[in-house]
Amino acid sequence: MSSVKIELRQDQIDKIHTICDSFGNQSGELINVLHKCQETFGYLPAEVQEVIAEKMEMSAAKVYGVVTFYSFFTMIPKGKHPISICTGTACYVRGAETVLNEFKKQLEIEVGETDVNGVFSLSCLRCVGACGLAPVVQVGDKTYGRVAPDDVKAIIKDYID
Amino acid sequence: MSKYSMHLLVCGGTGCKSQESDIIAEKLKNELLKQGLEETVQVIMTGCFGFCEKGPILKVMPDNTFYTQVKPEDAEEIVEEHVIKGRRVERLLYTDPETEAHVEDSKHMGFYKKQLRIALRNCGVIDPEIIDEYIARDGYSALGEVLANQTPEETIELMKASGLRGRGGAGFPAGLKWDFARKNEADQKYVVCNADEGDPGAFMDRSILEGDPHSVLEAMAIVGRCIGADMGYIYIRAEYPLAIARLKTAIGQARKYGLLGKDILGSDFNFDVDLKYGAGAFVCGEETALIHSMEGERGEPSLKPPFPAESGYMGKPTNVNNVETLANVPVIILKGAEWFSSIGTDTSKGTKVFALAGKINNVGLIEVPMGTTLREVIFEIGGGIKDGKKFKAVQTGGPSGGCLTEKHLDMPISYENLVANGSMMGSGGMIVLDEDDCMVSIAKFYLEFTVEESCGKCAPCRIGNKRLLELLERICEGKGEESDLVRLRNLGEVIKDTSLCGLGQSSPNPVLSTMDNFYDEYLAHVVDKKCPSGVCTDLLEYFIVEENCIGCTACARACPVGCISGERKEPHLINPDTCIKCGACMEKCKFDAVILK
Question: CA-CA distance, A110 to A139, in Å (whole number)?
Fold first, then answer.
């Protein structure tokens, strides 16, 4: 998995330490710590993982192993408007794949990537449970239902100022 | 609550909420305020009604009026017409597709007629954020009964007699599971609720947690009392923010009321519940993987035995039950084992919730007695196939299940029947497929899912499924051979026999069951290099429809390889042998004469 090289400022390091402390630096709480850190930073770059590992007295490899195991954690910063296409079965049989392809084409990025301006990122998710609206697309907190490939341009336009 | 003479129930489930149902509720409240009716009419955000296809849903009580596809701008009319003048807003009523008549209340809707809601009893009825509403519907009285009048052994015997089986997939008898955990002595035991609903297309657990969180908390306390645990955890996906929020509210309220915490209801029983978050891994639905994940590790399964009942969370005896299983528990305690076991078939008791989705008219969440046939579910409750298409198959059990066809439609639904026919109950996803769906592609879709979600611990699942997927990809690209079908089957059987956990042991099911039921489709892909449903693009060819072609030559000029021939003003022809399938002709044609077939 590719990652972005960043320098953490002291206050950011302090923040991570505070999060680890709030969970008692318990190794069993690693997933909760990662959730909190991802909430704070938007993603989990290697540098953040290293600080967590040191603070919680475990190897960076273990932290990395957990981060990469779960699809909810990401090492790449998401765009300002993260776009998620539901590829659960209900959406799939109602044409989610063609919608996804249209987003790829329009945004010129692949799944898991963020565009060069950092505005949009594209991901797939498995079932948001709004199967009555299939196929479903989420942009940030907003849900679009019954999306057809022809609607994609208009959805993207909503977020370009 | 008695001061209100009318209630407006607005669905607050995820499906309806994403269609602005919270704004509808807000507008209704404003309208009532404007009319000075806020003291007599109450607006309640409830859990899911199940009829997601026609959401957002608004139900008016006590007259049972069922409004569908309500929009925020309808609020004014509803208050003015229905609430004040007592006249139903006709255009918002559900229209029966057969008679084309408006159906006034939910009791007469085909969607609800055959349903029996036990696990979903409070969804769409109560406000999940107010504990008093749950208590008003006999909530926490099962816990009271267990604490005051039953020994743990008696409660376990009652559960065994009821015949309740796990609703998360494998169908293990719940009472037996509790008994194992009880008999393993330890200083500390745990109750775990498995709310890691990872099966794409299934959302019953989430709906229960969103619509009736207290039923799960009450059941967990009952389990705790039975097995001798004072701590429970709900392992829930981080992708379910609304369910998490409602659970947190519910836990807070239950603690305040003394229904969680120390000396519950004046007994010496202590029990508390906390949340643990998943982070998106399908395999964590497997109980040993779930427990590893709760411990902050990678969610990899481990070999059983030891079972969690012997050594689970933190190495202590742990009882893991799924959300829907738990939601059944309080009712069984109150109404008795005999009542529950009178519903269903010989071996599968009670009801099952299914998430009905795909090419079906009434997408939604339904609950039916075990023993109901697939035909009743799909054609009566589900309202048949979308756009008048032909039914082809129904996929049950998610990525671990298989496809059932026309010949299985009259089979009563039970754990055993589904397995005997190459599928499984799973968590209860039911995806309906029509004549336009390619079964090879569907199998490939599920395999893509499994390959992505395989944890990688054991070789058969990690490597085998990848090879299985590659074979399917080749077949869909038209590069398959007949011998590949033998390979698919052999490899599938080996993966099933040798994988470590339930994920790998069932992952080839979508492939094997579609091969059993749709072998001719596989053959068409490998022998004729055709996709009969017209889904696999690599196997399609471009054609010119003679009647539509006016001979404008636009396609011939656009073709980069010059494979289109024909005179001006005469129908043109594509030579399939030289066509590179770039689609330029189709893009250029203004008369829809170029088609893919």
Answer: 16
